[in-house]
Amino acid sequence: MVAGAQKAGTSALMWWLSQHPEVVTPVIKEPHFFDNPGFFNGPDIPTKAYHRAFAFEGKDKVYIEGTPKTMFDPKCLERVHRYNPSAKLICILRDPTIRAFSAWNMNSKNSDERDLRRLFHIEKERIMKDGLQTKGYLGYFSRGLYAKQVKQMRHWFPKEQLLFIPYERLITDNQGTFEEVCTFLDIAPPPSSIAREKKNVIPYSEPLDPMLEQEIRNWFKTDIEALEGLLGWDLSHWK
């Protein structure tokens, strides 16, 4: 499962995987099964409803979907574990400040006309009071608190079932990244014929204000440092 993060290259990775002969992806990249509580009210999981998202091509195939809310919502992680405790999860982590701006830019072109600075101050106050904001559009900045999410994932799954990829590597070394993903999934190296272009790229309607950017980076700094400790990465370029 490509479990996140939103606006961090999940569409591109899913597109690459969909072309691999050993992989089956759903018709819709994000089935939104595990973030739908209606499927999990009873003692039994309606697995047939989930499996209908995939064309069955044999038990020897690897079936992968890409709902980016999975890594963000602890309830999703619990449900994935309940469905398959042996599941493997792949997460691409992008500079949280730029990720938030990219997500806001995407939504501002659709229905969210609210000012990013105002949203930042509202959300950080709610995070201090209630924790991660997993519902509605108040999640631009919660989604970038990766350290909390990595801890949640490690609570439900052992480290060997989790693969974390820096977004920068996905962009600058997509061949090496794809090979790492294939090794993680125990499938053959990617064929040279697979096209690896970007997907779901939305041009920015306006640049991110430098003063607001620095304010957001300062706010994320503590979580970024915690993430460096968890993953052993140098993320000084995110601060």
Record the SSE blueprint:
Layout: E1 2-4, H1 10-18, E2 23-24, H2 47-51, E3 62-63, H3 74-83, E4 89-93, H4 96-108, H5 116-130, H6 146-156, E5 162-166, H7 167-172, H8 174-184, H9 210-231
Parallel strand pairs: 1-4, 2-3, 4-5
Helix pairs in contact: 3-6, 6-9
Descriptive key words:
single chain; about 240 residues; mainly alpha; Rossmann fold; two-stranded parallel ribbon; 9 helices; about 5% strand
CATH class: Alpha Beta
Task: Identify the strand order in the major beta sheet.
Answer: 1-4-5
Low-pLDDT residue intervals, each spanning 5 or more residues: none
Specify the structural class: mainly alpha
User: What's the SSE pattern?
Assistant: EHEHEHEHHHEHHH
Determine the CATH topology: Rossmann fold
Overall pLDDT:
92
* Estimated radius of gyration: 18 Å
CATH architecture: 3-Layer(aba) Sandwich
Determine the N-to-C terminus distance: 29 Å
Number of helices: 9
Specify the helix fraction band: 40-55%
Whole-number tally of structural domains: 1
Major β-sheet annotation: 3 strands, parallel
Number of strands: 5
What general outline do the C-alpha atoms trace?
globular
CATH level-four homologous superfamily name: P-loop containing nucleotide triphosphate hydrolases
